[in-house]
Amino acid sequence: MKLINNIPALRRLSNKYILTGLGFIVWMIFLDANNYFIHSELDKQIDHLENDIEFYEESLAKERELLKQLESDPEAFERFARENHGMLKEGETITIIEYETEQDE
After folding, report:
1. Considering the entire predicted model, what is its pTM?
2. How far from the centroid of its chain's Cα atoms is residue 33's Cα?
3. Alpha helices per DSSP H over the chain
């Protein structure tokens, strides 16, 4: 006890309020169910989800623009159907040529 009373820093750290406060801080940072590390992981997930939201909103805007174009222009509609869905006119045949790549092997 004499050693603690002789050193002023140890005397202050041995105060019950300081010890309780330090214990609380350690508990909240490391031991609690909602500690600092879990919060940082959740913040990363939130950032990732916000980036996903931006991507899907941009994608949705592009798709809406394409829909407006397809509804207003019959030639664009026909071109889109032929290019993306393999549709064809009467009496027409389409041959699809697929090339073998290294990934297919």
Report:
1. 0.57
2. 23
3. 2-6, 8-13, 16-26, 36-72, 74-85
